[in-house]
Specification:
The chain contains 9 helices and 10 strands. The chain has helices spanning 53-65, 87-104, 116-125, 141-148, 173-191, 210-218, 238-244, 252-264, 275-289; strands spanning 18-21, 24-27, 32-38, 70-74, 109-112, 129-132, 152-155, 198-201, 230-232, 267-272. Bound molecules: pteroic acid (PT1).
């Protein structure tokens, strides 16, 4: 046993060492930092800041300079209570931004959407990965991603964003979320999505109480049996506000801590607002443990 001679157990190893994103390679031998680029008027922490393509590209460039490995572009807020947006509105928001980021920065891009038509347009505009909080649950989404041949992040959500925090209930949150993600992995494989293109995410804050979120983080290593890279999004979420009584703009330190705890439990992608501080913490962790 590694522990008996005083050494740490082996670091978590992702199933595949890298992902291909629109001709660019994303190395998963080290943790990948995904910088959040919300092109929305109503996102919970930065709504309205990066609505114009020029402002959005500036933010992408800044996150890249701070160490982002991939930029996640989203045009529909999925925070608790958020209202859905139309297909046309979502396309109008994200496509000009993806085009500009793809042409001006040498950086992999993912599209945070649940709509198959947005997935197709985003990949045509230069995105190389799909990040879907509904785990390809919309009609046609599985087939769309299979045809596009891009990596996809399958996230667990109970309910729908507008109402998901009203009264979330689980028999056993870790087992229930893990079973859901295993089912979605199977659905992806049946649809022809490559095994190595699947990423899983327990969906912190999506139909979960603070206790559910803490249970999931404490037992995140239990998701390693699914044998897909694990992604987490904990950045600035309301569990921090509830535990520490801090407003959204003062949650960076707690967010970095949660990201690091997730990495310690086997997460290989972290979706964050505060790219620089998160990157410093994780690269130091890797220097010590690798
Ligand atoms: C996430 C995620 C996401 N989170 C993935 N994509 C959001 N793969 C958007 C709150 O409690 O975790 N993983 N895309 C943002 N959603 C939320 C949810 C924002 C909850 C805030 C809260 O404050």
């Amino acid at each position: 046993m590694a522990q008996l001679d005083g050494r740490r157990p082996d670091p978590p190893r992702a199933r595949c060492a890298s992902l291909r994103l629109a001709g660019r390679s994303l190395d998963l031998k080290r943790v990948a930092i995904m910088g959040i680029l919300n092109v929305t008027p109503d996102s919970f922490s930065d709504g309205g800041h990066f609505l114009s393509p020029v402002a959005a590209v500036g933010q992408a460039r800044a996150m890249r300079a701070e160490g982002a490995d991939i930029i996640d572009v989203g045009g529909e807020s999925t925070r608790p209570g958020a209202q859905p947006v139309s297909l046309e509105e979502e396309l109008d928001r994200v496509i000009p931004v993806i085009e500009r980021v793809a042409s001006e920065l040498d950086c992999p891009i993912s599209i945070d959407t649940t709509k198959p038509a947005v997935m197709r347009a985003a990949v045509a505009a230069g995105a190389g990965m799909v990040n879907d909080v509904k785990a390809l649950g919309e009609a046609g989404a599985l087939e769309t991603v299979a045809r596009l041949g891009v990596p996809v992040c399958l996230m667990h959500l109970q309910g729908e964003p507008r109402t998901m925090q009203e009264n979330p209930v689980y028999k056993d949150v870790v087992a229930d979320v893990r079973e859901f993600l295993a089912d979605r992995q199977q659905a992806c494989l049946a649809a022809g999505i490559a095994r190595d293109n699947i990423i899983i995410d327990p969906g912190f804050g999506f139909g979960k109480t603070v206790t559910h979120n803490l249970d999931l983080l404490r037992h995140l290593a239990a998701f390693k049996v699914l044998d897909s890279p694990i992604m987490v999004g904990l950045s600035r979420k309301s569990m921090i506000g509830k535990l520490l009584g801090l407003p959204v703009d003062r949650r960076a330190h707690a967010s970095v801590t949660l990201a690091l705890l997730a990495v310690q439990q086997g997460a290989t992608l972290v979706r964050v607002h505060d790219v620089g501080p998160t990157c410093q913490a994780i690269r130091m962790y890797e220097a010590v443990t690798h």
